[in-house]
Amino acid sequence: MVALLVLLLVGCGPPRSSRVVIGAKNFTEQVVLGEMLAQEIEAVTGERVERRFYLAGSYLCQQALVGGRIDGYVEYTGTALTAILKEPLPPAEDRGGVLGRVRDDYERRFGVKVEAPLGFEDTFAMAVRGEDARRFGWTKISDLVGRPELRLGVGYEFESRPDGLAGLEKAYGLRFAGRPRTMELGLLYRALAQKQVDIVSGNSTDGPIRALGFKVLEDDKGYFPPYEAVPLFREDSLKAHPGIQVAMDRLAGKATAEEMQGMNDAVDAQHRDVGDVVREWRRGKGL
């Protein structure tokens, strides 16, 4: 199915648009970030940006980018390193070099510029119910060792990714009750709240974590690499549309994890229009 979608998107699509085209994966934060890039480019250039959101996961976005169907999208450095570049997880003491490695390899292999980080990380987050964390004194992932009765819920990518479940279980010596329940990210927190599972692998900037009072456990062994949010743009697109770089420079370092949580929650839980949410955030930043 994924291969067919890639062929349709990259091989059989319409000619490349003369407008700047921004892509995004198929979850709320990615749509927020795609809208953020699009609005800022429109503000700088005065020209309409085409939006191609909900492009499934990292693989499809990457194929769309290198195939010229989109000019840019936001990726996370840890995902770029492990899922796209297929490089092994670096040792914990070398995690600070991930951005540089990703930047060099994307330029060399794909002709893609990795822009300055937007200011926040969206790392995998092992979350439990707040009342359970208080009851059992859970503060870090190591606290779950020796609790094989716990039921785990995960997203589809986390179960198979090189920086996902198998490595986490090995790094911490974790065992869970049976096979993990696999579901869409949006359903994970509902399952946790309804006590269908006891722990989930979400994302650190997901709105429901704060809204539902869940506790994110500290990655005390430093298993997960950095997941800084970075815009990726084709180098030929930057040459053809110089305003893109101006817009990316304006966005660099502007977004915090707490602000992303708030925007994600506004779209997911409050059902607000993503364009309005991003415009409000940009006004608050003086953009």
UniProtKB/TrEMBL annotation:
Q: Which Pfam families match?
A: OpuAC (PF04069)
Naming one, the record's GO cellular component terms include:
ATP-binding cassette (ABC) transporter complex
Give any GO molecular function from the UniProt entry.
transmembrane transporter activity
Stored CDD domains: PBP2_Opu_like_2
Q: Where in this chain does the record put each ABC-type glycine betaine transport system substrate-binding domain?
A: 19-282
Protein name as annotated: Osmoprotectant transport system substrate-binding protein
